[in-house]
Amino acid sequence: MDTIRVQLNGKERDLRSGLTVRGLLESLELQPGMVVVERNREILARARYDEVEVREGDRLELVHFVGGGA
Predict the structure, then answer these.
(1) Nearby residues of 8 by Cβ (< 8 Å), 6 or more positions away
(2) Which fold has domain 3-64?
(3) Which of 23, 40, 58, 60 has the fewest CB atoms within 10 Å of its CB?
């Protein structure tokens, strides 16, 4: 299995190569509709999560929204 190295929320991480952003989120057990993804300082539109491939050296920031309130 080929792997790539990325920075995910500030930490180095090895991932399986060929993952799309949606595939990454699913592998992390995150619902794509509840996550904002910034890739290399660019916020990705959710509609593109299926088409954007995670690449070697990418810097990814994931912001997960949590329900609740007072």
Answers:
(1) 60, 62
(2) Ubiquitin-like (UB roll) (3.10.20)
(3) 40
Residue 9 tokens, joined: 């929320």
Q: Which two tokens stand for residue 23?
A: 């595939």
pTM: 0.88
Model confidence pLDDT, tens digit, residues 48-69: 999 999 999 999 999 987 766 6
Q: DSSP letter at 22?
A: H
Placement of tokens 């959710």 in the chain: 46
Domain ranges of the chain: 3-64
CA 65: distance to chain centroid? 14
